[in-house]
Amino acid sequence: MSLKFDSAKKLRKEKTKHKVESWEEYEQREETFLKERLQSKEPTISAQVRITGGKAKNFHIDIPRTTRPLTDRMKVRIFDLLREDIYKKTVLDLYAGAGSFGLEALSRGAKEATFVDASKQAFQVINSNVAHAGFLPEATVVKSKVEEYLQKKIKEGDTFEVIFMDPPYKLYNTKRVFKMQQVINNTSLLLPGVQDRKTKKFKGVLIVKHPRRYPIDNLNLEYIKKVETYEFGLNSISFFIVK
């Protein structure tokens, strides 16, 4: 992996390249969502985000009403780190929501992307986004609970080289960390380097979006190790590679 660290100065430069109102607007939406989620209120985020790079750059992505969007700022950082490691790779977008990560990956040269979400609304929105962005041949959209999908793919022996997951906040219960631990461990079984420990090819990367204060370092992960975490307001993005 490249995983090149880009300075805050470069991020500020990136900010001016995209015709959006401000990164702060997206951070504010995230904070609003989190506060309302913690108060058990219906989230009220209604927004669009963009594909930030590649052949579909600046394409507007529709966001389901109850989905907290993966912000443009997060995507810029993630894909600046991945760089050429996304090219011609197979991508899995779990708890896909609007499909923002998978669409960004396809735009930047991924070979194919699979989107998985149990929500009927998310399923419809992802299909619409995929069609309007022009990625129908490279995309597979699956309406399924992630846990059931993982069990199916583990049995079939399928692999994905780049996996992104943005689980619902109910999984981030600090008193029941075994649930999140199980999901991450099961997901890691789909990485090529876990299924074939001797492979000399790209072993895969798992990227997890989680609350900043969640004790992700305390999880007992069998096959992968964390290499870096980046903070974005109340949220963080952590990168894991095969041990």
What does this molecule look like?
This protein is α/β, with parallel strands linked by helices and 243 residues long. It has one domain (8-242): 3-Layer(aba) Sandwich (Rossmann fold). 35% of the residues lie in helices and 21% in strands. It has 8 helices and 9 strands. It has a 7-stranded mixed beta sheet with strand order 5-4-3-6-7-9-8. Strands 1-2 form a two-stranded antiparallel sheet. It is globular and about 40 Å long. It starts with 7 loop residues before the first helix and ends with a strand.
Total number of distinct structural domains: 1
Helical run tally? 8
- Which CATH class? Alpha Beta
CATH topology: Rossmann fold
At CATH level 2, the architecture is 3-Layer(aba) Sandwich
Find the count of extended strands (DSSP E, 2+ residues): 9
The overall pLDDT, averaged over residues, is: 85
Percentage beta strand: 15-25%
Instruction: Report Rg.
Output: 17 Å
Could you give a short account of the major beta sheet? 7 strands, mixed
Return residue spans where pLDDT drops below 50 for at least 5 consecutive residues: 1-8, 14-20, 40-46
String of helices and strands? HHEEHEHEHEHEHHEEE
| Overall shape | globular
Strand arrangement, largest sheet? 5-4-3-6-7-9-8
What structural class is derived from the secondary structure elements? alpha/beta
**How far apart, in Å, are the first and last alpha carbons?**
13 Å
CATH superfamily: Vaccinia Virus protein VP39
